[in-house]
Amino acid sequence: MHKERPILENIIKENMSITEVFQNKTLRPVIKMQHLLLIKSFKNYLLNRKIDFSVLTDQKKKSRIKGIFTKDINYKNFTIGLIVGDFTTDEFHFYAENTSEINRRILQIITQRVQDSIKELE
Question: The pTM is what?
Answer without folding.
Answer: 0.90
